[in-house]
Design a protein that fits this description.
The protein is mostly helical. The chain contains nine helices and no strands. The mean pLDDT is 88. Bound molecules: zinc ion. Zinc ion binds next to loops.
Length: 269
C-alpha cells in the first residue's frame, strides 16, 4: 500500500504537469483552456495518444506525429519534475503529520483522510504547481504574470487560515516578502526588478508564513547571485541585462517549503 500510494501520487503529478504545460502555452498565446490541444508547430489537433504525459514524448522520440518537428524538452521535463515534487510533498507532509499524530501511519490508507493532512497537502501541491508555472514562464518569456500571482495569493491566504496560521503571521510574511522587493524597486527606480517580483514576494509570504519566508529569500538571493555572477564571468550576460529573478524565487520557495523548518531549526532561529 505504501508504494502504491506513491505511484498514484506520481501519476497524478505527471498529469498535472501536462496540464501546467498546456496552461503556460495558452496563457502565452491567450487561448482558452476549453479549446483542444494542438501541435504548436503544425496546429494539428492532438489525440489521446499524443497526450499521455512523459510516455507520448518517449514513444514518439520527441517528435510530433503529424509534422515530425521536434517537441520542446520543456514538456517532458515539466511533467517529470511535477511528478517528483508531488511525491516529495506527499512524503514530507506524511512525515510531518505522523510526527504529531500517533495514530497517523503511512501504512494505513485511512490516514490520508486526515483533515489537516488533506488541506496541507492540497495547499502545498497548489503552491508547487504555481511555482512551476512562474519558473517556466519567467525563464521562457521573462515576466511574472499577475493573473497567476494574484489568485494564488488568495488561495494561499485562505488555506493557511483554515490550517490555523494567524493572519498576523501571514501579513508579516507577505509584507516582508513584498516589501523586500518594493524597497529594491524604489531604490533602483524599477531598474533591478519588476513589479511582478513584488507580487511574487508577497505570494511567497502568504504561502510560507513567518519565518520561513526568510529561508526562501535567502536561498533565492544566494542562487541568483551565484548564477548571475557566473553568467557575467562567462560573458553570457552583462550587468545591464535582466536575469529572470522569478526563476530563483521559485527555487528558493521550494527549498523553504520542503526544508524551511529544519533549516531554521539548524540555525536555531
Ligand atoms: Zn506538429
Amino acid at each position: 500500500m505504501y508504494y502504491f500510494n506513491f505511484i498514484i501520487v506520481f501519476i497524478f503529478g505527471l498529469t498535472i504537469g501536462s496540464f501546467l504545460n498546456a496552461l503556460i502555452w495558452r496563457m502565452h498565446v491567450k487561448k482558452s483552456m476549453a479549446e483542444r490541444s494542438c501541435c504548436p508547430k503544425c496546429k494539428h489537433v492532438l489525440g489521446i495518444k499524443d497526450l499521455i504525459p512523459l510516455f507520448s514524448f518517449l514513444w514518439q522520440k520527441g517528435k510530433c506525429r503529424y509534422c515530425q518537428k521536434k517537441i520542446s524538452w520543456q514538456y517532458p521535463a515539466v511533467e517529470l519534475i511535477t511528478g517528483i515534487l508531488f511525491v516529495v510533498t506527499f512524503v514530507i507532509n506524511f512525515q510531518a503529520i505522523s510526527f504529531q499524530n500517533f495514530q497517523f501511519s503511512i501504512f494505513n490508507f485511512q490516514s490520508i483522510f486526515n483533515f489537516q493532512f488533506l488541506i496541507l497537502t492540497l495547499q502545498d501541491l497548489f503552491f508547487v504547481s504555481t511555482l512551476i508555472i512562474i519558473f517556466v514562464y519567467d525563464l521562457k518569456y521573462g515576466y511574472i504574470l499577475d493573473k497567476v500571482t494574484l489568485p494564488a495569493m488568495l488561495v494561499g491566504l485562505i488555506l493557511n487560515l483554515i490550517l490555523g496560521i494567524t493572519w498576523q503571521n501571514l501579513l508579516l510574511a507577505a509584507v516582508i516578502g513584498g516589501g523586500f522587493f518594493l524597497a529594491q524597486f524604489l531604490i533602483s527606480k524599477g531598474q533591478w526588478i519588476g513589479g511582478g517580483d513584488i507580487r511574487m514576494g508577497a505570494l511567497m509570504g502568504l504561502f510560507l508564513g513567518w519565518p520561513q519566508i526568510l529561508v526562501a529569500l535567502f536561498f533565492s538571493y544566494i542562487l541568483g547571485a551565484t548564477i548571475g555572477i557566473g553568467l557575467i564571468i562567462f560573458k553570457k550576460k552583462t550587468w545591464k541585462s535582466e536575469i529572470p529573478f522569478g526563476v530563483f524565487l521559485a527555487i528558493g520557495a521550494i527549498i523553504s517549503l520542503f526544508f524551511g523548518e529544519q533549516i531554521l531549526l539548524a540555525f536555531s532561529f
